[in-house]
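Explain the record.
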Amino acid sequence: MTALWTMSYNVRYDTPGDGDDVWDERRDAVADIVRSRRPALVGFQEPLPHQLTDLRERLPAYEIVGRGRNADGGGERSPIGFRRDRFSVLDRETLWLSETPENPGSVGWDAELPRIATRLRLRDEQTGRTLTHCNTHFAHKGERARREAASLLARRLDGDDPTILTGDFNCEADSPPYRRLVDAGVRDARSASELPPFGPHTTRTDFGSLHPDWIIDHVFVDGPLSVRQCGTCSETDRRHRYPSDHLPVLAELRYEDR
């Protein structure tokens, strides 16, 4: 049975305020984690345009697609990377997490900033199957915005294809946004896993240490997909620091028989 390894990774936007942990010090280690874990699909959160350029240069095995959240196409992205030797794109779209999801740059409900989801419909050339991968980043402030974004994506992703939803959801298990997704039939790969979760029980760091019991990054699945294992990757860089303020979430998924 063909494995479908999927990663979600908030790489932290580049800001001078991070001091010794600015992007130039972290970018090689971020790419090293992806390269060593070899996910077939990876949803990134927060990269700015120059960070996306750096990731593309360091990860040539991946096509990485996704526009910025601002009306002019700039700003942070929530791009999806897929292995060039395995997938082809059938369809793609960007949704703004707002009352007007097709309106570029629109800010939803009580959020402070535009938030987006990148959706790709892909053909898996190894299996001939089609699937949908959606990658997102929910509002860091705005409880209603997170709830409504969950409802929006649950509606938009309701289909027959195997569906993967990755992202930084800025919410923990059993929070209202999380419950809206689960109540709509979307399954958290961590809780659906056949094997116990691996890695630390957190997805947050301060670069130097872990914040325990704080899981806000998730891989969700819907449709004919099973989960063999899921957990967090905790590799550090040459300085013995975490390459982002988030740990990547990695899940081994498998297609189920139709």
About this structure: Residues 154 and 181 are 6 Å apart (CA to CA).
